[in-house]
Every structure is written in C-alpha cells, then in structure tokens.
Amino acid sequence: MPPTSLPLSGDPAADQLLVSDSLALLIGMVLDQQVPLERAFHSPLDLQQRLQRPLDASEIADMDPERLVELFSRRPALHRFPGSMARRVQDVCRVVADQYGGRAEQVWRSAPTGEVLLARVRALPGFGEHKARIFVALLAKRMGVAPPGWEEAAGDFGAPGSHLSVADIDSPEALVQVRAAKAAVKAAAKARAGEQAPGSG
After folding, report:
1. Which of 41, 95, 161, 186 is deepest in the core (most CB within 10 A)?
2. Inter-residue long-range contacts of 17-20, CB under 8 Å, 24+ positions, other chains counted
3. What's the whole-model pTM score?
C-alpha cells in the first residue's frame, strides 16, 4: 500500500501531493538536483498554486515555454536554475502526454518488469542512470510499485535498510541518516581525489 504522504518537503500539503498526484512526484524527482531535496519536492505544489489549477501534463506540455519559465522564475524561484529546469519539466510532460496518455503513473504502473521500468524512466528527459535507479527504488520502497526484478534495476539503491537516497526517506530521522550517508560518500570521494592529485602525499 502506498503511503498517505512522502515526508520529503517538510510541508504536509506538499508531501501529500507527491502521493496523490503522480505528475507531482515525477516533477519533484526531475527537480531533485543541485537544490535541497525539500525545495525540489515542494516545488510541484508551488507550481500548482501558480497555475491556479491541478497539474496537467498535456497542459504544461502545450504551454508557451516563456510563460512556464516565468512561473518557475517568480520569487521564490522553483529551482536554482529556473529556466533550464522549466524546459526540462516541459519536456518530461510532453513525453507523458504523447506516450502515456497524459498520465504519469502509466510510466510505472504498466511496467511488467523492473528492467522495463528502468528503461522507461531512463528514457525520460533529465533522468540519467543514477537518478533512474533511485526513482525505481523510490517507487518500490515508498509507493508499492515493485515489478519483478525491481531490486536488480535499482542496484545499490534497492538494498533493504539502506540510507543512500531519497528512496530511503520515510521519516525526518531517515532524512538525517541519508544526508549523513551522502556527506560521508562525498568526503570519501574528495579524499580519494586528494590522494590522486599530482604532488599529493
């Protein structure tokens, strides 16, 4: 059973929208880069409020691109890079409208296997290998979308009990653990880079 909300934004209304509106969840995932995840996953609600109506993939896909950029850029901006991310969200909505009947949940609900699910997500604008695997893990761990083979498709992010990504956040405490794990990974990578630098050591 999917949860009644995803505790990602720090705002109950925004967290509930992520569960009740599949397009909101997808947009939040698109925006989850180079900004705090709370901001990324709050932005779908902010966008809905600025549109003054529910999120609709076909409508967003057909919008004047400059109008969408204006909505993203209005203070407080919906992302650190509002122009490029507005265009990316519009590109994703266009795929959802053209290939999935305007229903974002069809990207994952109709996937027969984890392999197919990963391929579908990876084909969306803005989803590289890393982000696609995280989203597969999030869908399985948090939303109950677990087609056969999803663990292999999610890779390390599918491991039970891990705290590697947004897929593992089910409470404020888990958010703290995920942040700590990410910081440790970054510190280790930085240390390795320093060891390999010319003249280091």
Report:
1. 41
2. 17/44, 17/45, 17/48, 18/44, 19/143
3. 0.91
